[in-house]
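RECORD CONTENTS
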Amino acid sequence: MVISEIPIVESPPSEVDPIEKKNVEVLQPFTLEILKLIKYVQQQHGLRHGDYQRYRGYCSRRISRLRKVLRLPQGDRRHFKKRDVTENHIINPRSDERFLHIPLILSERCWAYAMQLKQESNTEPRKKFHLIQKLRKACIYALQLDELCKIQRCDARTQLEAQAYVAWIHGSLQFELELWVKAAENLKKAQVIYEKLATTLSEEDQLPYKQRVEEIAPSLRYCAYNIGDEKAVNLLELRSQGVLETFDALISQTKEKTAAILHEVTWFGTKIPIKIERVRLFLLSIEGLDDSLKNAEDNQAKIKILENVFIDLRDVISLTRESARTDKQDQLLLTYLLSIRIERTSQRNLLLVEQTKKPQDSVRLLDINIQQTNELSQNESIKNNDSAQEYFTSQLAAYKALRSYYLARTHAGAKRWREAVVLLDVALKASANLKPSEYIPELSSLVALVKETTETEIANTKANFVLDSQDEHTVTVPTKLYKSKKPLIERLDEFREEPQLLSKNPNLVSLPPSMEPVPAKPLFFDLANNLVAFPDLTEKLEGKTKGKQGAGISGFVKGLWGWGKK
């Protein structure tokens, strides 16, 4: 684009001078990493926990701060005057790339509000219209951002990121409007751009782009499914990823498109008629369950798919139990549904066994599997069915072998080596007759693990037992035995190897201790007092008595009349 041909719409405070236009081409271009920026602020402000309201509040505060810093207010406290970011703000030599943040954060705020309304629309369907309105507004701000990024001031990466962001926002809107063809086109465009951008970045910077590509993939497959390519999507997998809002409605659509309607199922040679419509839809929905589990990324994704199945299965069993009270044929159907729940619960427990690091937790999960499988095999409907009994007997044998293996590891962790060896031997003998190919993949892999590692575990356990036994029973035997009747406390200055001190009754101290003389404080007695002869003082005592008698009368008179006072 030639700078002199850019039309000037308005004259804001940051209007470009004619002299400065000549130097625009040599200015450093803006680089705005849109996806990296929004992913970072989303994780920091609420979206880590799915709190769209908190993220929307952050966007509002961020826009206010940006307008204040960039001196782009929209009026004052009394009057509102709309001011958008224009090309003049971008091509100004003194411009700041944060001008591009304003339309981006405005679009993010509208998108966050739409996602909040989407959560609330599950209970309030009328909010669906408000959701669409907010997504339309987000698309308008995204287009403004794209137009600003097309200016020569922005580099190629910024322009590509803006195009991908616009395509993703428009695809999200068209997905909600059920415009499947247009939604697929825009989402595919965004996916391709993000994939290409990821290839040009380092491994550290590729993570948000790969995450966005993975987020777009389920929506693309759902669009392809609605367009007519039914093989491009799996309903159970989409539901576990949160793409579908109402699973029952989608199953109803699948039922209308399916020519052959399910009327009966065969279970161990017994045909079970299905009269309840809800049960038919559920059984149709789980036909591709094994394929969904096979294509899942990890065990956690498989567990999530199974838990979603349990939610629907609970409602179907409750409905069938009410019908079975009056209809005997529905009693057999109820048993069949219970068997599905038990088998899928056992499958979920096996996935947890593969994940857990504590063998005692694995033992508890396998106990549940053994109990449920045993109860199912004793059900009156299949108690006399040879094929069913053979199947469940094989399942129980595999579960018991696994239980013995993990119980042995529990004992080994507590250093009970004898019990561990016995249980490992039981697991080895039990697994020798098992054929992993006859079981589901989760059980098959665990049985194969027991077969491969049990012999090694037995050898390690025996070696640990021998080492611990040597440590417990090894006692240093002195070359010369020494016995003494004196307790140890009386001969602490002597060192002798005495086995008697290592016995149960060592001679350490005498109790009670013997009496010993101890020094005490001396007592003093005055024995000279009785032998001393004191002098005769009678004369002195008599003279003193006479003097007192002569002065008695005169002293009386002087005291009466006040005479004699000095």
Notes: The two ends are 137 Å apart (CA to CA). Residues 1-25, 243-251, 253-261 have pLDDT under 50 and may be disordered. The chain has 19 helices and two strands.
